[in-house]
Write a structure and sequence with these properties.
By secondary structure, the chain is of the alpha+beta class. Helix content is 63%, strand content 20%. It has a two-stranded antiparallel sheet. A hairpin with a 2-residue loop joins β1 and β2.
C-alpha cells in the first residue's frame, strides 16, 4: 500500500493517502480481484504483495473499456463546448 501511494504521488496524485489505498486493496482482495502474499522484509515486519487474479484482470479490462467509452463522450462534449464559445 505504501509503495502504491508513493507511485501515485509521483504520477501527480498528491492527495491520495494510504488511508484511501488500504481500504481499496482490502475490498479488491475480498472481491477476489487481488491475491496477497506475505514476504519477509529486511526492515521489519513482513511485507504484503498484491497480484491481480484472473477475475481482477478481467475486471481491469472491463474498466478500461468503460473508461474509453466515457472519456470519448466527455472529450466530445468538451470539444463541442469549446467550439460553441468561439
Amino acid at each position: 500500500g505504501y509503495e502504491i501511494t508513493e507511485k501515485l504521488k509521483f504520477m501527480g496524485f498528491s492527495d491520495i493517502s494510504e488511508g484511501t489505498i488500504y481500504p481499496l486493496l482490502l475490498r479488491l482482495t475480498r472481491n477476489n480481484y487481488l491475491h496477497t502474499t506475505l514476504k519477509p522484509s529486511p526492515n521489519g515486519p513482513q511485507r504484503k504483495y498484491y497480484t491481480l487474479t484472473k477475475e481482477g484482470i478481467e475486471e481491469a479490462f472491463g474498466f478500461q473499456n468503460n473508461w474509453k467509452d466515457l472519456s470519448f463522450v466527455v472529450n466530445h462534449l468538451i470539444r463541442r463546448n469549446q467550439n460553441d464559445k468561439r
